[in-house]
Amino acid sequence: MDPVDLAAIDAERQRIRDAHLMQDRPASSARGVHHVALLSSDVERTVRFYQDVLGFPLTEVIENRDYKGSTHFFFDLGNGNLLAFFDFPGLDLGPYAEVLGGLHHLAISVDLSTWRRLRERLDAAGIAYTEESGTSLYFRDPDGARVELLAEPLGEMYGSTVR
């Protein structure tokens, strides 16, 4: 791996801030995230993980309109946000992989008391995780997608406002 020029990276980040961050930015054209869709190799295993371990209620199970026999199912993440999954029976999708343009991780905001309770549930379920800064838990879902439980308010990161 080639050495990284951190000074050049810092300078480029500052150039991007100066060129694109607006003090008086307009309102977004979006209303919010309707849902984020991930893939599942086993619907029931995914439901047991996200609902039973993490406490995200399953809200609906329907057929995927784009692929007959595929299940489209949703979990409530709070504040009108949904996490969705598809399964694709008969397709060999291979194992999860982090690739450019793909999902690195899904960060889900929870309050600190819930974060502590969910850490205990991960322990009880034998799910390995990495804890960072006393506010982040990183772990993998049953199909390998990286999930972060973040005890930071929506719109904040490391004490900074990011919205």
Give a topology summary.
Elements: H1 6-20, E1 35-39, H2 43-53, E2 58-63, E3 71-78, E4 81-86, E5 106-109, H3 112-124, E6 129-132, E7 136-140, E8 146-150, E9 156-157, E10 160-161
Parallel strand pairs: 1-4, 5-8
Antiparallel strand pairs: 2-3, 3-4, 6-7, 7-8, 9-10
Write structural notes for this entry.
The structure is a single chain. The chain is α+β, with helices and mostly antiparallel strands and 163 residues long. It is 24% helix and 29% strand. It is built from 3 helices and 10 strands. It has helices spanning 6-20, 43-53, 112-124; strands at 35-39, 58-63, 71-78, 81-86, 106-109, 129-132, 136-140, 146-150, 156-157, 160-161. It has a 4-stranded mixed beta sheet, with helices on one face. Strand 7 and strand 8 (146-150) form a beta hairpin. The model has no long low-confidence stretch (mean pLDDT 91).
Briefly summarize what is shown:
The chain is an alpha+beta fold and 163 residues long. The protein has three helices and ten strands; from the N terminus they run αβαββββαβββββ. The strands form three sheets. A four-stranded mixed beta sheet has the order 1-4-3-2, covered by helices on one side. Strands 5-8-7-6 form a four-stranded mixed beta sheet.
